[in-house]
Design brief:
alpha+beta; binds ligand HEL; globular; ten-stranded antiparallel beta sheet; single chain; 14 helices
Length: 403
């Protein structure tokens, strides 16, 4: 096991700067948020150990509490050479990529190159037969566009093996979605769909004339000095020190499948970024702290509509309401072999990033949510009911196995 506690030499900027940013980000009448309770590091370690006992080869988390860093890692990065997992390890962040894509589009809105309430058709004429779907609906999963991955991954391992080396164009992915009936009228209801963030990638490329890679790099990775974060597509090998990802087959007791190498072309701007826990914390703190877009645009991104009793979705951003009454903002990721989490408090002063290097394992998924409780509710966290998958009950692709 690897446990570290560090006071970051970089901190989070000056106190005055932080106060000014908080004032900008919080609406005029909102009361300042009370500081969350101290993180419960023993509880956090317990959560990670439980994930291991439930079948994850490794699990890790890093908390950045206004510059004070706590990192815990248990288990293995690689089952073959038995190398231990560490918070320096890079991994596939899956749908946390959606928050990066949303940030680029919100910056374009700040630059008046994009109107959130215009139809997608204004920017990508003829792409979607339904001309009424707006950019805001796409970013909030309210477009009604079918999620083509529901069909693609209905059978977990065969579905994955069928696409792991494939390279798709965005249009091919959208066409797969359009073969199916809409899940609802535009704006009618929340229905998570990867198709939305493929459209987001197409919008980025159309509006800027550059690849999403270039835009992520110039607008987010370089300014925030995210040295372990990059967009990997269509190459399938993660360079540098990284955690291998182990996919759990649908058949109980079957051997884990090493799913590390894949193009992730089925996701691209919906899920193909690589990062590590430290960079994810830096990103979430900067986003929530108001350092990536104007306060007005951040407020749009944080305008949430409920998903269920403990979750809401804004624009490429999730909110989770924790047992101690604190709400945190960020995203989750589930790409074959990797469950990942990146959340921060509303003011961005405390952030948590976590990984278990397995997927398609409902018990691990459920357990890892406890990392948020330990990081933000501390010892006040209420024990979670064992055996209830509380996360993504609306979001999980059909056929996902809940252990
Ligand atoms: S699904 C989610 C998560 N998101 C969405 C996206 C991502 N990932 C995918 O769409 C991949 C789905 C298949 C994952 C696979 C597994 O567990 O490795 N499961 C199956 O194949 C089941 N048959 C909403 C969960 C998110 O948290 O936003 O990432």
């Amino acid at each position: 096991m690897n446990v570290t506690h560090l006071a970051s030499p970089l901190g989070k900027g000056t106190l005055l700067g932080t106060v000014v940013l908080c004032l900008l980000a919080v609406p005029a009448q909102a009361a300042p948020a009370a500081a969350p309770p101290k993180p419960d590091l023993a509880g956090l370690r317990g959560v990670l150990d439980t994930a291991l006992a439930q079948g994850a080869p490794g699990a890790m988390a890093q908390i950045d509490d206004n510059g004070t860093i706590d990192s815990i890692a248990v288990g293995l990065a690689d089952r073959k050479d038995e190398r231990g997992l560490g918070n320096d390890d890079r991994f596939r962040i899956g749908s946390i990529t959606k928050t990066f894509s949303a940030v680029v589009l919100m910056q374009l809105a700040d630059e008046k190159k994009l109107d959130l309430d215009s139809s997608v058709d204004r920017y990508l004429p003829g792409l979607l037969p339904d001309r009424d779907i707006t950019v805001r609906q796409v970013l909030g999963h309210r477009s009604g566009l079918y999620d083509y991955t529901d069909e693609m991954f209905a059978k977990t391992v065969p579905g994955f093996e069928a696409v792991r080396s494939k390279v798709f164009t965005y249009r091919q992915l959208v066409d797969r979605a359009l073969r199916h009936k809409r899940t609802g009228a535009p704006g009618a209801a929340y229905a998570y769909s990867n198709t939305n963030f493929v459209v987001a990638g197409m919008l980025i490329e159309r509006l800027t004339g550059h690849s999403v890679r270039t835009e992520y790099e110039n607008r987010i990775f370089k300014p925030l000095k995210l040295r372990d974060t990059f967009y990997l597509h269509p190459d399938s090998t993660i360079p540098g020190r990284h955690a291998k990802g182990y996919l759990t087959p649908d058949q109980p007791g079957a051997e884990l499948v090493d799913a590390t190498d894949q193009t992730v072309s089925w996701a691209q701007s919906a899920g193909a970024i690589i990062s590590n826990t430290q960079d994810l914390n830096t990103f979430l703190s900067a986003l929530l702290g108001g350092r990536l877009m104007s306060a007005a645009q951040l407020a749009q991104m944080e305008r949430m509509l409920p998903v269920n009793s403990t979750q809401a979705y804004g624009l490429g951003l999730r909110r989770r309401d924790l047992s101690c009454g604190i709400s945190v903002y960020g995203h989750t990721g589930a790409v074959q072999g990797y469950y990942s989490y990146a959340f921060a408090t509303k003011d961005g002063r405390r952030s948590l990033a976590a990984l278990a290097n397995t997927s398609n394992n409902g018990a691990v998924l459920n357990t890892m949510l406890g990392t948020l409780e330990s990081a933000f509710c501390g010892k006040q966290a209420k024990p979670r009911r064992v055996g209830t998958v509380v996360e993504r009950s609306e979001d999980v692709a059909p056929g996902v196995v809940r252990h």
